[in-house]
Fold these 4 entries.
Entry 1:
Amino acid sequence: MPAPKTPGQTPGKTTTPAAHLATERKPWKKKTPVEVVLEQAEKLKAEIAEGEEDLKNKRRQLEKFEQARKLFEAT
């Protein structure tokens, strides 16, 4: 049995908070090629910094394992 239709309500369209927020969005601003390249460069720098930090942590962990291995070999 289909749901009763109410006047002024179209199927598939509901009034949700998300729909309300869609009208308050900032207008889309097209980026210049220079802005795109600079943004990509910043993202790459951030990824590299994160990778270097991860590598430092792994080197510290390896050093601890090496020290533990030396202790085990000494006994």
Entry 2:
Amino acid sequence: MTTPDVTETRPLIGSLWWLVLLRGVLAIVLGVLAFVWPVATVVAFAWVFAAYTIADGVTTIMHAVSWRKHDPAWGWMLVTGALGIVTGAVIMIWPLAAGAVALLVLLWIVAIWAIASGAAGIPAAASLASGAGKTLAIVFSVLSLLFGVLLAILLFATPGSALVGLVYVLGSYAVLSGLVLVLIAFQVRAVTRAAAPSAG
């Protein structure tokens, strides 16, 4: 009974896997830059992070719009993309030269964005068909949610240490999340290619 729907969506899935791959690559690049650049260049890192969240938001919205006819939970992905764009815009507009106060505000914005992104991503991932792709998508959303919660706790307990560890924490999170997204992309691509001959 579900076979016609699955067969109909396979070409669309195969054409969208690269969007997920792009998100993963962008995250990995951000994480690598976080470890390469010294802590003194945190302002430049903030600009890079802002650019990443905007690019990630745009690709997520593209993914959501392309998937809207096949996934009733596409609105969650749309909200996630919009949150990314708003977060990036706020970081770019914010007066970074204000120093530690502005950086603390930036960290809170990042924490809120990660929590909201993870919370919105879990129901969207849960609506996917069962399989490795669904599991990885849920893992990615849970990682985002946990990162936001842990960062918020760190900001409450030791705001000074949070500033010092910003680059490395964000770098680790970005690399890990990027790897998960890359795995999701190639998993979707492999499943689509394997199913193509039988569909034909």
Entry 3:
Amino acid sequence: MGGFPALGGGGAGMGGSGPLAAGGTASSIGGSAGAESGGASGGAGGATSQGGGAGVTAGLVIPPMRDTASKVPISHASGYTVEGNYAYGPLTAQRIDVIYPPNAGPKGTQVLPVVLMFHGGAWIHSYTNDYGSGKDHMSTFFDRFLAHGFLVCNAEYRVNDGTADGAVAPAAVQDALLAAKWCWDYLDYFHGDRARYVVTGASAGGHLALMVGMTTPAAMLGPTSPSDFKIAAIVDGYGPADIEAEINAVAKGWIPPSLPNRAAIAKQVSPMTYVRKDIPPVIDVQGSEDNTAPIGDSIRLINLLAAAGADASIHQVQGAGHGFTTPASAWPDAEKAMFDWLTARGIGK
């Protein structure tokens, strides 16, 4: 897709570290529990084996480190084990929960398909405000994936919320790619199936799911599939598909008018920029009446991908707007579309 200029708006927030921004070595994503500086005491260093990543060294599975001092809210899933706030990077928001059923996870015997997911909130809302966003608000997605037999990685990321821990675009995409690499590195530790590694999200999180599966190395935003991890499928839950078109609408808070190189950044973080054949299979599941993340943009993206030869489809949930709250049939319809599609590709059930 051609190269991109070096852009501001988030890169400095990654500590200016080349290895970290690119997924880096394990020591750049480790860090002792409670440490926000990504110190070298992380338990994920060294050379890797088994085609895996930081979690496997010289044949030994090394546990990742949880940030027990983190104040990022943790997911709740009744009847499942929730291991909260693993540090996938050194910054406050770079925390991820891992959720799995009995007889699974590090001490279990089951090897499960894995889903990495991202919450919504227009890239400006998260656990730092009362909007009802943040990873702990993703139960409508992770409950369904858990019920369908998945191990869930539920990620927090930086948003442009005006706090010291926030950041404008492209920080959320950088974090999403870093989280995807962290999960890949530890799939062996959590007994996740490398051939069934799915990414999903809601609204802004749906956009991040698209970016995890579609971003190319030329974007210089971080680790990319399939060179650093391999995404088996993208399930986009009503994510904005054309950020350039939405720069003065839903994306305005994330890419504010005061941001230098604003137009270039919008192009850099837009799924439309990365249309090509060799992306993971993708489905967009979205309300037919969605005007927040315009359904027309999603239809156009899917049509362009299909024309390029990609496995791309869209399912419109009739009568639903942005999200699947109403009508009453919306979530059952969306759930069936998601998991029928995954099952047809040998990933879900």
Entry 4:
Amino acid sequence: MNNYEIVECLKCDNRFISYDHQDEHIVCKHCDNQDRMETIFLTQDEFNQCDCEQCEQIKKEVNK
């Protein structure tokens, strides 16, 4: 599987998977955020401990 990070956009408050091969100019998949200062990259522990709906959906996708 490819390397990935879990990204949280502070502008639109969405989380998504960012794979290592994606275009680096894309900051958020959900909105027009182009400012990396408005994004958070979750650690693996933070992601594993989170039980929000978005993280649970991401975990399902990752575990396919």
